[in-house]
């Protein structure tokens, strides 16, 4: 915190262009490339603005290739992405789960894709509704773009199936403040004239994410997380860990007559598990009891209500066991 490797400086105070931080940045990128098996034809950018910022930055950089893009809407975040992109070109909602209250991902056979679209955009995990892509859509020659903010590093993926991946760090990679963008090199150089230089992927790639001052400390901490995940056995190990946690919680909910999860089983998120009490008048008592047991932030998003357990990489399986024990106790007392 106060003295990085005997330099006499914290990472927070060292020059972002000095050899110390340049080494930190290079090492973080190398570890992320190894973890995700990122092919050589892709650039890794460390940017700012989060996924909300990328909702504008992606179309600024890509939609100019043809003037239009397809969006698959599976919940609140992909809905926001599509809405923002309309400011920069013609956007078509190629498929939507809205009719089913966003409880399932529309089958690929129902997608109406435009072969002339500049890209197809998905949100790989919807934190609010609790649906997740457990498959990679085939979009033919049209590049697939994915917002992976909430499930990146949770399991292995084939990066070569995507044209661009972006993710805010704050769920599985580190503190908020840094956004990772993994972009195929042939998609660089198509930014709209209105694109600020700091948001231009080609400019950032040419400057190794140093066109403007990057979020240095957030990158440093993310780099430590990459090393930690590698030390645990990489993404295959993380997938086993996450599937075990999710299975434990979903199995209890499926066997309960007091709690319910309404997401289609094939599309259930490994990261975010929403659930409802069958008697909503007990919600406050449930949350109060959870807080007394050291379990906080279980209240569901205001859009959907109910409860939500977020079980990202860092949540140990003991935490899920404690939650299931409390669910069982609460049901016995009130059911």
Automatic annotation (TrEMBL):
Q: Name one Pfam family in it.
A: Aminotran_5
Output the InterPro entries linked to this UniProt entry: Aminotrans_V_dom, Aminotrans_V_PyrdxlP_BS, Pser_aminoTfrase, PyrdxlP-dep_Trfase, PyrdxlP-dep_Trfase_major, PyrdxlP-dep_Trfase_small
Q: Which residues bind pyridoxal 5'-phosphate?
A: 77, 127, 147, 170, 212-213
Q: Which residues form the signal peptide?
A: none
GO-annotated biological processes: L-serine biosynthetic process; pyridoxine biosynthetic process
**Could you tell me which pathway this protein works in?**
Amino-acid biosynthesis; L-serine biosynthesis; L-serine from 3-phospho-D-glycerate: step 2/3; Cofactor biosynthesis; pyridoxine 5'-phosphate biosynthesis; pyridoxine 5'-phosphate from D-erythrose 4-phosphate: step 3/5
Record field: catalytic activity: 4-(phosphooxy)-L-threonine + 2-oxoglutarate = (R)-3-hydroxy-2-oxo-4-phosphooxybutanoate + L-glutamate; O-phospho-L-serine + 2-oxoglutarate = 3-phosphooxypyruvate + L-glutamate
Cite the EC number. 2.6.1.52
- Co-factor remark: Binds 1 pyridoxal phosphate per subunit.
What are the N6-(pyridoxal phosphate)lysine sites (modified residues) in this protein? 171
Q: Name the domain of life.
A: Bacteria
What does this protein do, in the record's words?
Catalyzes the reversible conversion of 3-phosphohydroxypyruvate to phosphoserine and of 3-hydroxy-2-oxo-4-phosphonooxybutanoate to phosphohydroxythreonine.
Q: Which family does it belong to?
A: Belongs to the class-V pyridoxal-phosphate-dependent aminotransferase family. SerC subfamily.
Assembly and interaction partners: Homodimer.
The name on file for this protein is Phosphoserine aminotransferase
| Annotated organism of origin | Ramlibacter tataouinensis (strain ATCC BAA-407 / DSM 14655 / LMG 21543 / TTB310)
Species lineage, top-down?
A: Bacteria, Pseudomonadati, Pseudomonadota, Betaproteobacteria, Burkholderiales
């Amino acid at each position: 915190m106060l003295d990085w490797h005997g330099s006499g400086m914290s990472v927070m105070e060292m020059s972002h262009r000095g050899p110390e931080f340049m080494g930190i940045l290079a090492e973080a990128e190398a570890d992320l490339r190894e973890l995700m098996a990122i092919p050589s034809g892709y650039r890794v950018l460390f940017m700012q603005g989060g996924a909300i910022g990328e909702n504008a930055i992606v179309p600024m950089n890509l939609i100019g290739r043809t003037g239009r893009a397809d969006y698959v809407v599976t919940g609140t975040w992909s809905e926001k992405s599509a809405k923002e992109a309309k400011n920069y070109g013609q956007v078509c909602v190629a498929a939507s789960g809205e009719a089913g209250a966003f409880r399932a991902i529309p089958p690929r056979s129902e997608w109406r894709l435009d072969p002339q679209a500049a890209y197809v955009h998905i949100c790989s995990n919807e934190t609010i509704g609790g649906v997740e892509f457990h498959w990679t859509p085939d979009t033919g020659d049209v590049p697939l773009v994915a917002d992976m903010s909430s499930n990146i590093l949770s399991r292995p993926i084939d990066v070569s199936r995507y044209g661009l991946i972006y993710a805010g760090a704050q769920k599985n990679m580190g503190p908020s403040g840094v956004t990772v963008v993994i972009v195929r090199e042939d998609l660089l150089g198509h930014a709209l004239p209105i694109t600020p230089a700091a948001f231009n992927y080609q400019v950032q790639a040419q400057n190794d994410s140093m066109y403007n001052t990057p979020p240095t400390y957030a990158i440093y901490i993310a780099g430590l997380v990459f090393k930690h995940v590698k030390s645990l056995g990489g993404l295959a190990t993380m997938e086993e860990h996450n599937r075990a946690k999710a299975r434990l919680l979903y199995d209890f909910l499926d066997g309960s007559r007091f709690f319910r999860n309404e997401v289609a089983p094939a599309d259930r998120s490994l990261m975010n598990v929403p659930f409802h009490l069958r008697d909503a008048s007990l919600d406050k008592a449930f949350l109060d009891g959870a807080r007394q047991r050291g379990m906080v932030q279980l209240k569901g998003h205001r859009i959907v209500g109910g409860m939500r357990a977020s079980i990202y990489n860092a949540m140990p399986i003991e935490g899920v066991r404690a939650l299931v024990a409390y669910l069982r106790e609460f049901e016995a007392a009130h059911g």
